[in-house]
TrEMBL record:
Source taxonomy: Bacteria, Bacillati, Bacillota, Bacilli, Bacillales
Family per similarity comment: Belongs to the amidase family.
Keyword Ligase attributed: yes
Protein name as it appears in the record: Aspartyl-tRNA(Asn) amidotransferase subunit A /glutamyl-tRNA(Gln) amidotransferase subunit A
Organism per entry: Mesobacillus selenatarsenatis (strain DSM 18680 / JCM 14380 / FERM P-15431 / SF-1)
Gene3D superfamilies cross-referenced by the UniProt entry: Amidase signature (AS) domain
Entry EC number(s): 6.3.5.6, 6.3.5.7
The keyword Mitochondrion is annotated on this UniProt entry: no
SUPFAM superfamilies documented for this protein: Amidase signature (AS) enzymes
């Protein structure tokens, strides 16, 4: 197509060109393949390429809202039958998915073309994408920086322009954190809104939700139209929505809303001034639009939320390690996974069923507190992260920490570490940079990260907005309005473009 610039279009824009026969799906696939081969060596975003399958699919008759649009899936939970799905771990290198995930099935019906899978940290456990087996993914805005995690590979693929949309999921911020670091739009839906089956009825006890990372608000909204709906394997019900998220994302809010905001870390740690300024700039704009704005903290205890999140985190890691027996044909050992993963599993084994149940009760308590809060306030706004993107390797354990982790792992001293207060130390170290996102995972609320600020060095900074459960429609309306504002950051300013 003469004068066609692939990167100028979002996913819906590309799909419209296909529908009007201005471009063929195979042309889009070849463009994405060329960009992958050109840019991926710099970023290490894509770890499994499915070029021939993509070409074959592109030559078929495709239907659906996103017919012909190339995209990547995340290398965890988003299975394609017969394809590898490693979850960033060498333990799964010989594993092949036994069936499509429900998420993947719905994407197929929407007409997308799968190009491959993106890099993740081992078992999607941390907020940086630096798995030992595949190596680190780098941020397209600054190759010395992380794109975040666990959807870091997907974020880098979208932010660099390889694809306009990529699969992601979010169990503690794994959509919103990479969106913030890479200048993208990222929405975590309400618990139960999108499918997690058929192999599971809940992911991370309901903390994790499937969706996408995008450059435009409307792509995310349209994809949620395709993904949401009843799932027979799903463990959770969700407030119904009978409209179109795409349509509502283009509608103005139409009324003045009450908005609460805070720039304080819920666990009492420092917050970078640029991350705070992104919020303050946003609420000033919203106030100028006539909305009522109050500076007020969420009515929950941040440290309790952090501990209850980590209790789930430890337990889920222990369960993941136990389930490796089905993959390996034997019980997993410390040599099968990364040392930190093994340590987290030991902490999970040292966690009692009583502690686990009490932590889930804390989730329910926080959910009620936030639902009550949203009876007064339509939105709760915070920084997405407390600090801009870290340097690659910056959050790696030190040599002494690695020695301790290795020793503890070999001796199986998870219980002793818990009694010594290691959980509090892990909470502070791991959540200091990203303390804002876990709340919505535990309460089940929808939350989004908006690209509304940059540091003086040009690194993207995200602004998080939360709403009551089931109110993705309100979030999309707000995002659609802000996308037209002067403070919205255009991802095409990315230096790799």
């Amino acid at each position: 197509m003469e004068g066609f610039n692939y990167k100028d279009y979002d996913a819906l824009g590309l799909a419209e060109l296909v529908r009007r026969k201005k471009v063929q799906p195979l042309e889009l696939v070849e463009e994405a393949i060329q960009l992958t081969d050109s840019l991926n060596p710099k970023m290490n975003a894509v770890i499994n390429k499915m070029y021939e399958q993509a070409r074959k699919t592109a030559n078929q008759e495709l239907t659906g809202r996103f017919a012909g649009v190339p995209m990547f899936l995340k290398d965890i939970s988003q299975e394609i039958e017969g394809e590898p799905i490693t979850a960033g771990s060498k333990a799964f290198l010989n594993y092949r998915a036994r069936t499509d995930s429900e998420y993947t099935r719905r994407l197929r019906k929407a007409g997308v073309v799968f190009l491959g899978q993106t890099n993740v940290p081992e078992f999607a456990l941390v907020a940086v994408t630096e798995p030992a087996h595949y190596g680190p993914t780098r941020n397209p805005w600054n190759l010395d920086r992380t794109p975040g995690g666990s959807s870091g590979g997907s974020a880098a693929a979208v932010a660099s322009g390889i694809v306009p949309i990529a699969g992601a999921n979010d169990g503690g911020g794994s959509i919103r954190i990479p969106a913030a670091y890479c200048g993208l739009f990222g929405l975590k839906p309400t618990r139960g809104r999108t499918p997690v089956g058929p192999n599971y009825g809940r992911a991370w006890q309901g903390a994790s939700a499937e969706h996408v990372l995008t450059r435009s608000v409307r792509d995310s909204a349209a994809m949620l139209d395709e993904l949401h709906g009843y799932e027979k394997a799903g463990a959770f019900s969700v407030p119904p929505f009978s409209g179109s998220y795409l349509e509502i994302s283009g509608m103005p809010l139409g009324k003045k809303l009450r908005i609460a905001f805070s720039v304080k870390s819920p666990i009492g740690m420092d917050v970078d001034k640029d991350c705070s300024e992104g919020v303050l700039k946003t609420v000033r704009l919203l106030e100028s639009m006539g909305h009522h704005v109050d500076e007020i903290d969420a009515p929950v205890e941040g440290n309790k939320i952090a501990k209850s999140y980590l209790t789930m985190y430890f337990g889920e890691t222990a369960a993941q390690l136990a389930s490796l027996e089905d993959v390996l044909g034997r019980k997993a050992t410390a040599s099968d996974v990364e040392p930190t993963t093994w340590l987290l599993g030991l902490l999970g084994k040292a966690t009692s069923a009583e502690e686990f149940v009490l932590s889930l009760r804390e989730w329910d308590r926080a959910a009620l507190q936030m639902e009550t809060f949203h009876e007064t306030y339509d939105f709760y706004i915070t920084p997405t992260t407390a600090h801009p993107s870290a340097k690659i390797g910056e959050l790696e354990p030190s040599s002494s920490e690695k020695f301790i982790i290795s020793t503890v792992g070999k001796l199986g001293l998870g219980g002793a570490l818990k009694r010594a207060g290691i959980v509090d130390q892990i909470a502070q170290k791991n959540l200091a940079r990203t303390p804002f996102t876990q709340l919505a995972n535990l309460t089940g609320q929808p939350a989004m990260s908006l690209p509304l600020h940059q540091t003086k060095d040009g690194l993207p900074v995200g602004v998080q907005v939360m709403a009551a459960r089931g109110r993705e429609d309100l979030l999309f309306q707000l995002a659609g309005e802000l996308e037209q504002s002067e403070i919205w950051q255009d991802v095409r300013e990315n230096p790799l473009f």
